[in-house]
Each structure stands twice: as C-alpha cells, then as structure tokens.
Amino acid sequence: MKNIVVFLYLYMCCKNDGGVRGVSDEESLNYLRKYGYLEANSMGETSQISVSTYERSLRDFQRMVGIPVTSILDRNTQHAMKRPRCGVKDKMVSHGGLRRYAVQRSTWSIENLTFKIWRYPTGLTQDSVDKTIQKAFDLWSEYTDLTFKPTPSKANIDIAFLRNDHEDGYPFDGREGQLAHTFLPEYGGAIHFDISEDWTIDSRDGKNLLQVAAHEIGHALGLLHSEKCNSIMTPLYNDNLFDVKLYPDDIQRIQNLYGPKTKRSQPPIFPWFLNLPSENPCISKLHRTHFGFSNEIPAFYFNPCILKDLN
Ligand SMILES: [Zn+2]
Ligand SMILES: [Zn+2]
C-alpha cells in the first residue's frame, strides 16, 4: 500500500492542476475505496492498483457527482470529496464486507409499509421530526402505491439517530462527512442518521432533515445512487436545495421497482358543504380548521371562508 501511495504521489504531482489541495493523495485513495470506486481486499485495503485503475476510479467519481471528467485529483474533485454526503457506497462490489450492499434489485414485497423512529436527535422536537419523516415518506408514496405509516411496535423500516460506532460495521464520523446511511430492503431497510449533525427543519442553517430523509428513504426502498445531479438520489448533500422533491430520474427509477401510482385516495366530502348555512358559509368558527384534509390537497383550498379572508 505504501509503495502504491508513493508511486501515485509522484504521478499526481505531475498530473494535478498544481493548486492547493484540500484532499491528500492518500485521502483520495481512502475515499475512493470507501465509496466503492476501488476494490478493497479482505483487510479493507486497496492493493495493487495501477495508475489507469486510479484514473478510471476518479472518472467514475467525477461522473457520479457531475463535475468535469478529468481523470486527475483536481480542485473540483477535491472539493466534491470534502462535501457532506450519504454514507452508502456509490459503486457496488461483490466481495468481503461490502456484500450487504451488492444487490442489483432489492425491493419490498408488500405495499403498506410501517416505520418506527426509535431514537431522536437533540435540538428538535419529536413532533417536528415525526412530521418531517412522514413528509419524506409521502414524497415517495406520491408516485407509487406504497404507503408508509408510523407504528409503535415492530416496523418494516427502523429509523434512528446514532453516534459514531453504533455496532453495524459502518461507524459515523462526527460532524460533516457522512450524514446518514441506509440498508437496502434485503438487509432490513434500516435508516441511520448521524446524531452529531446539526439537523434542522425549515431553516437554511445546518443539515436539512427533509432532504436527507427523502434520499435515505430511496435507499430503504431499494434505490442506489444516481449520476443525475437533478435527483434526490445524488450522493452529495446539496446546501442549496430548499424545495425537496422527487425529480424525473427518481420517479422513473422508483416506478421501475414498484410500478406507477394506480390508487388515488378519494377526496372527502367537505363538512361545510353539508352543514353550514348556504347563505353564509363563513358563519362557523370551524372554518380555519383542517378537517376534510385529504392526502392530496389541503381542504382550505376549497374553503370560501379562507379565500374571503385572504381577499
Ligand atoms: Zn445515499
Ligand atoms: Zn448504521
């Protein structure tokens, strides 16, 4: 390993862009190995790699994160390697300790799935975390017939905020770096968030829980990382993504696994159409409540009282 690193160092001194690097040569090798671009032996070490193999792994990484493909450890590449990201490997290899990720197609065989959050982060209320996680699940049920409901008992998908080594073989690394990781359905679909992060909701500071949860749920449903930057399944965290949603690439890939949505919930009959006096529907003090809320459209969109108030 040492000889290889020295060799690569000499090589890259000639090939990189000569700028101040934030990622050392050995760090880049570790990163590429960690995320599946370079195969590791049973000791977890990268052995006998050639320059062409290293260049190919850099190209694969550059394609995955949507930066210019240069085959060298340039500034863009170093910057990308420094960005916070998902802990799931970008490339799947099929030996050693990585085998649990080496699945081409891993899906749930049932449509109605349950989840349970069994350890919460500090700094956020449980209610706000519950709502955010449900919102993230709802993004995926919007385009499939999958449903996701919380349960206090045994769940299909276990969710927890955990610290450092939490005894699953994939320790977290403290603040920044890896934000979360998830096991594919075949391995239980558990979602782990790094509790060391500054998780936030509806804030431009910290790490946006909805964005990371939506991404990790994609893994829990069987999706791997996408090379499309306009995808919730891109592996790097996006500091500037505030409108968290599924993109065409995500929708196509999840529907390839589970099919398109065929079941639409029926909109409820809104009580004010039945019970309130027809001459003045705004007479009731209930008009600001959200009863009649459907899965699709908040009921107040149809409430003439609210429209009147807005006018
Ligand atoms: Zn991921
Ligand atoms: Zn874990």
From TrEMBL:
Q: Which residues bind Ca(2+) 2?
A: 188
Can you cite a GO biological process for this protein?
proteolysis
Which residues are the active-site ones?
A: 216
Instruction: Describe cofactor binding as the record notes it.
Output: Can bind about 5 Ca(2+) ions per subunit. Binds 2 Zn(2+) ions per subunit.
Q: Does the keyword Methyltransferase apply?
A: no
List ligand-binding residues for Ca(2+) 3: 173-174, 194, 197
Sequence motif Cysteine switch, residues: 84-93
Q: Which UniProt keywords apply?
A: Calcium, Hydrolase, Metal-binding, Metalloprotease, Protease, Signal, Zinc
Q: Name one GO cellular component term.
A: extracellular space
Q: Say if the entry is tagged with keyword Protease.
A: yes
Q: Which SUPFAM superfamilies match?
A: Metalloproteases ('zincins'), catalytic domain, PGBD-like
Cofactor field:
Ca(2+); Zn(2+)
GO molecular function terms noted in the UniProt entry: metalloendopeptidase activity; zinc ion binding
| Residues involved in Zn(2+) 2 binding | 86, 215, 219, 225, 233
Query: For binding Ca(2+) 1, which residues are annotated in this chain's numbering?
Result: 197
* Residues where Zn(2+) 1 binds: 166, 168, 181, 192
- The record places domain Peptidase metallopeptidase at 104-260
**Source organism, top-level taxon:** Eukaryota
Which family does this protein fall into?
Belongs to the peptidase M10A family.
Name-wise, this protein is: Peptidase metallopeptidase domain-containing protein
